[in-house]
Amino acid sequence: MPFSAPPGTDPERHTQRLPRRIHRLRTLGMGLAALPTGMVLLENQAGAGHWVFLFFTTVLWPQLALWLALRHPEPFRGEIRNLLVDSILAGMWVPLMAFNLLPSVMLVTLTTVDKISTGIDRLWYWSLPLMAAGALAVGVSTGFEMQPMTSMAVMVACLPMLMIHSIAVSQASYRLVRKVKRQNRQLDELTRRDTLTALDSRRHWQEQATLLLEQCEATGEPATLLMIDIDHFKAINDRHGHAAGDDVLRATAEVIRHSIRGQDAAGRLGGDEFAVLLRGTDVEAAGIVAQRIREGVQALALDSAPGLHPTVSLGLAKATGSADGLRAWLEAADRALYQAKSRGRNQLAIDEALQPLADMP
């Protein structure tokens, strides 16, 4: 039976923690189940064998299950085996209680809920035939004695298990859901960030740029796009090594981050190319930011590459009303960047070919 850890969890850590987590719930659930089960046995004047089996099921088995799981070469697999044994035991107790209606239904239902709450794929599905097999085997030996009526005393004995165990299982499931949500948020954050520079990833930056263009088109607010490329980056990698190249990328990203405002957005588009969205900024103000970045990068001194003073070329373009949207804006900034490089690098060039939104009819 191919079982796997719940989605969104660390398989190795889940493998080690599952037996102990289930042990707490098993001890609580089976301890509480002893109340209605014992009350039924009292009413049915059950023999000593029933009481010994009740003691084994509710007291000894939870401890034995933990011991067996932790001794298993794969504790996760060992605990799955224990969970299936739980279902067999639950099925066995249904005929042992002479099919007393409320505790039988409660035991079968909560045992199945336990399997579902683990988040282990198909576990509850496999537990059902085992539960039925346990009930059938014991039912044959007892002659399927039927006493389905549930007394008030047994009903009252069922209440602690219904309330306490259900709340405990719900809390465990809630913690698992919160953990998965937290991991999903972390995963979403990773997709939004470039792992090397901690700037926005290409996809996330493009999403912000598209939204900014739509806002500019609706309000006429100015915005500028700054493309930044590290000069002779391949030569830096070849001469100083890729580790030094990574240091240059990180240091350049840090300069960019400290040169812009919180409302702006900086991203790494790939390789040694960066892009910055400057909101509510005209070309003149954007040029000041660009020069600040250029001078900051030129002043860098890296321990991993003594004597290296990297430089950047920058291309600047203002937001436009072109039907091509972001693509046209990027191409305009790219043209300006190419001009800066063709003029000797380590400088800023501005693309004036596209008409600003504010001047459009």
Which tags fit this structure?
single chain, 361 residues, alpha+beta, five-stranded mixed β-sheet, 11 helices, disordered N terminus
Structure, described:
This protein is an alpha+beta fold and 361 residues long. Helices cover 65% and strands 9% of the residues. It is built from 11 helices and 5 strands. The protein has helices spanning 11-43, 48-71, 75-96, 101-117, 123-142, 152-192, 202-219, 233-240, 242-259, 283-298, 326-342; strands at 223-230, 265-270, 273-279, 312-318, 348-350. It has a 5-stranded mixed β-sheet with strand order 2-3-1-4-5, sandwiched between helices. Helix 1 runs parallel beside helix 3, helix 1 (11-43) runs antiparallel to helix 6 (152-192) and helix 8 packs across helix 9.
Question: In summary, what is this structure?
Answer:
65% of the residues lie in helices and 9% in strands. The chain is built from eleven helices and five strands; from the N terminus they run αααααααβααββαβαβ. α1 packs antiparallel against α2, α1 packs parallel to α3 and α4 runs antiparallel to α5.
